[in-house]
Amino acid sequence: MTRAGIQVQPIRTNRDYEKAASRIGELMSAAPGTAAGDELDVLAILVDAYEAKHHPVDAPDPVTAIQFRMEQQGLARRDLEPFIGSRARVSEVLTGKRSLTLDMIRRLKSGLGISADLLIGATPIKGRRPPANRTARNSGRNSRAEARTAKPSRKTA
């Protein structure tokens, strides 16, 4: 696309991405509504789409989100007690041994401003094994039971 000196092309490769990012750096001081400002807007949209497709960023797990907010606000573990509960409960949550309850999530959201979507995310609980696949376990038992009850085959010599 060319308009008043603007040259914008789709970003398909990492090389295209690098060129577009470099051009964005050159245009950062462009005034809105100018040709350079329009080029900056279009390039920013293209780069954002490329990054979303090729370099997705996963949302942090709830513990990471809490620790990040603690670091931002200079909070200690004891500062989380009004939101999570006792010192032991705070420790269990931050070490991943206990999941957040709905009440904890509500208090953390209102007290620390952490998005409930981040706090609801799945936190693997350390020390617990994932549930076993019942089908595989049962099928193993059935095959052993069938082997015990099966009649021995007669060998003919």
Describe the structure in your own words.
The protein is mainly α and 157 residues long. The chain folds into 2 domains: 2-54, no CATH class; 62-120, Orthogonal Bundle (434 Repressor (Amino-terminal Domain)), CATH 1.10.260.40. The protein has 8 helices and 2 strands. The chain has helices at 14-27, 35-54, 62-73, 81-84, 87-94, 102-112, 116-120, 134-149, and strands spanning 2-3, 6-7. Strand 1 and strand 2 (6-7) form a beta hairpin. Helix 1 (14-27) packs antiparallel against helix 2. The relative contact order is 0.09.
SSE topology sketch:
Elements: E1 2-3, E2 6-7, H1 14-27, H2 35-54, H3 62-73, H4 81-84, H5 87-94, H6 102-112, H7 116-120, H8 134-149
Antiparallel strand pairs: 1-2
Q: In the residues, how many domains can be counted?
A: 2
CATH architectural designation of the largest domain: Orthogonal Bundle
Distance between the termini: 86 Å
The CATH topology name of the largest domain reads 434 Repressor (Amino-terminal Domain)
The CATH top-level class label of the largest domain:
Mainly Alpha
Report strand order across the widest sheet.
1-2
Q: Compute the average pLDDT.
A: 82
Could you estimate the helical fraction of the residues in percent? 55-70%
Quaternary:
single chain
Whole-angstrom Rg: 29 Å
CATH superfamily of the largest domain: lambda repressor-like DNA-binding domains
Order of helices and strands: EEHHHHHHHH
Uncertain regions: pLDDT < 50 for 5+ in a row? 133-140
Kindly state the number of beta strands: 2
> Which band does the percent of strand residues land in?
under 5%
Biggest sheet overview: 2 strands, antiparallel
